[in-house]
Amino acid sequence: MSNLPISEQYRLVAKRYVDADSAATLLEETKSAFLSKKMAALGDMPVSRAEMTVKASDEWYDYISKMVKAREQAALLKAQLEFLRMKFMEEQSSNATRRAEMRL
User: Fold this and answer.
1) Residue 72 domain-assigned?
2) CB 24 within 8 A of CB 67
3) Are the CB atoms for 81 and 13 separated by under 8 Å?
4) What pTM does this model have?
5) Which end of the chain is less crowded, N or C, counting CB atoms within 10 A of the terminal residue's CB?
């Protein structure tokens, strides 16, 4: 991918970031709905006990793990975008310096 122009690299990573951020946000936003659904499936049980039961389950652990991994992936892609932005700025600065030196 490094043989592509920086603008195209940025576009490709930005698309992946948007998708990853969307997936992470969806998991975060549906967390309480997931919990409520699992609690309701337990039937007639005090809310505090149902919540404790669900949060102690492997299914809840898997959900939270998936949510955290999705946010981690989005954060890594955001860092790649920042790297590409910095790389572009360095190139611009280097080109400006070269032009200034050529005028001297």
Assistant:
1) yes
2) yes
3) yes
4) 0.80
5) C
